[in-house]
Amino acid sequence: MLETTLIGLILLTGLPAVLFCTYLGIASLLSGALKRPGRAGREMRFDVIVPAHDEAPVIARCISSLRQLSWPEDRLRVTVIADNCKDATAAIALQLGARVLQRQDDSRRGKGYALQLAFETSLREGWADAVVVVDADSEASCNLLEAFAAGIASGAHAIQAHYGVLNAWVSWRTRLMSIAQEAFHRVRSRARERLGVSCGIRGNGWCVTRQLLQRVPYRAFCLAEDVEYGIELGLAGYRVHYADEASVHGEMVSSAQVAVRQRQRWEGGRSALRRSRTGPLLLAAIRRGSPVCLDLALDLLVPPLSQIALMVAAFTLAAGLGWWWDPRLKPAFWIALAAGGVLWLYVLRGWQLSATGLRGLMDLARAPGFVLWKLIVVARHREPQEWIRTQREQP
Fold this sequence. Notes:
Helix 9 packs antiparallel against helix 10, helix 11 runs antiparallel to helix 12 and helix 11 (305-325) packs across helix 14. The protein has an 8-stranded mixed beta sheet, sandwiched between helices. Helix 2 (59-67) links the parallel strand 1 and strand 2. It is globular and about 70 Å long. It has 2 domains: 2-30 and 302-379; 46-253, Spore Coat Polysaccharide Biosynthesis Protein SpsA, Chain A (Alpha-Beta Complex). It is built from 14 helices and 8 strands. The longest helix is centred in the C-terminal third of the chain and has 33 residues, at 256-288. The protein has 395 residues and is of the alpha/beta class.
């Protein structure tokens, strides 16, 4: 009886790891390049929104990138939201020809409030057919608006471009982040687009039409406001399409000390949404037979890669010791090894798409230490209550 109970506990402990690895394995198998949509006309008008909180060191680079977009100048407006700024962000943006909306509100602080102001202003003016969000530390590919226009012409109302790492070659940490970004953003997003579900909103390089903003007003103010709004769109019956052919690349920090706060914000925001939105998404999936809501719920339930790696390692160790103690656990040990293999294939697919080459592959040797660091960050998580600017490493 005791032996049977222990065997059951080991198998039950390993079940989440197997399920999560299966999810990632399916995404890897479906991560081939997507067919590009046809070209659309160039009549559409875009408001490109740049939320900025004390971004004077990088705002000029961002605006210069947006000025290079392949789109008629009279159908494109760049608007910088200088949110509670105490530096020269607004002055620099004005000097470079961007429109600036300055927002000062000590009681409502956060990127979500800045975006709400931008969207409400755009809707009130009625000039733009769609709005695009690009972070102040990012550079956009020249075809960004072309890709969004093509998607909208094909029937999409919300579109996410690929979100990559701008400074991948700064350090081993940013190269690992680049590999992780490719796995999380491109591998999963390609698979979700191929399945016809929502790729979600990733906070940077996304577009929504004026009609959809009117139907689903932007009211996302948590620490993961992008994920929150993507979920609200799914609950309202809209999926976020994925534009694989266009991209934005944002700057990642290479210092562990600086990265801690950023990582805590990301993980903390998703954790809060996991608690508050998984239930409604699953209920909507059952009641309406919505694959979009089901997939959004699954995306929330899948923990960070570091936690999955820890689960697989624990399952492999437990199953290995169990096999030594009871031969009946031999299949469990091989299942654990298979789950670990699938996890590595997912990581290697991210490496392949990251274009970091041999250097990036060698950096994967540091992955166990990187995973341990992320686990410590999550364990020590303390949720910030406002929009805290990430310390930039470039002057």
